[in-house]
Design a protein that fits this description.
The protein is of the alpha+beta class. It has a domain of about 150 residues: Bira Bifunctional Protein, Domain 2 (BirA Bifunctional Protein, domain 2, 2-Layer Sandwich), CATH 3.30.930. It is built from nine helices and seven strands, in the order αβββααααβββααβαα. A five-stranded mixed β-sheet has the order 3-4-5-6-7. The chain starts with a helix and ends with a helix.
């Protein structure tokens, strides 16, 4: 189980950095507890509590989701696709309040194009994010290894792009072809190392932990004369 492995990873990191058995650290004046198990919440369940919309409405009622997005102040809400609005609502209403280490689970399939759907609910996928201090630290999921379903998902992503979602994926023909050769059950996790370093060094800006932070271009002498 990747969530348990992630908890174990944090235990080992804390042991190495802060001392054996340390499970609490202070970040920006807030005590964070890494005692197992980390809290687990449902993506739609938590968003439902914050919006007053049912999980079914969040999945299917575009008018109510649009109205809530406008009410919350989501910028250009009417120009966004339905599930982009759902994402924006989650990031505005739920994510900032997740201070202690929290696994967000059961993401909608529509915003997780590479993840395998849940056996007991095909509208959701086997995916989690680890949120700490309102920031995404890790993203993980069971890989979708059905080439026909993956092709269908990519085409749905193209439709989302056509509706204005710039973050929707492009169609990846090579990836679909590779899946046709076969891929065993697989899961993967991406961890934001820079954000981890911020957390463990008590830094508020990512620029403080990057080896080579992006700098403004140096002005040329002739530009100064203008």
């Amino acid at each position: 189980d990747l969530m348990e492995m992630t908890e174990e990873l944090f235990e080992e990191l804390l042991d190495e950095i802060f001392g054996k058995g340390v499970r609490e650290i202070e970040y920006q004046g807030v005590k964070l507890s890494f005692k197992r198990p980390f809290r687990r919440i449902s993506y739609l369940g938590e968003l439902s509590k914050k919006t007053g919309l049912s999980e079914e409405e969040l999945l299917h009622d575009e008018e109510k989701v649009l109205a809530k997005a406008k009410e919350v102040g989501i910028e250009k809400a009417e120009e966004l696709s339905h599930f982009k609005r759902v994402q924006e609502l989650f990031e505005a209403l739920v994510e900032p309040e997740l201070i202690q280490p929290t696994f967000v689970i059961d993401f909608p399939k529509a915003i997780s194009p590479l993840a395998k759907e849940k056996r007991d609910n095909p509208e959701l996928v086997e995916r989690f994010e680890l949120i700490i201090f309102g920031r995404e630290i890790a993203n993980a999921y069971t890989e979708l290894n059905n080439p026909e379903e993956q092709e269908k998902r990519f085409r749905q992503q193209l439709e989302e792009r056509a509706k204005g979602d710039e973050e929707a994926m492009e169609y990846d023909e090579d990836f679909v072809t590779a899946l046709e050769y076969g891929m065993p059950p697989t899961a993967g996790e991406g961890i934001g190392i820079d954000r981890l370093v911020m957390l463990f060094t008590n830094k508020d800006s990512i620029r403080e932990v990057l080896l080579f932070p992006q700098l403004r271009p140096e002005k040329k002498p002739e530009e100064d004369k203008e």
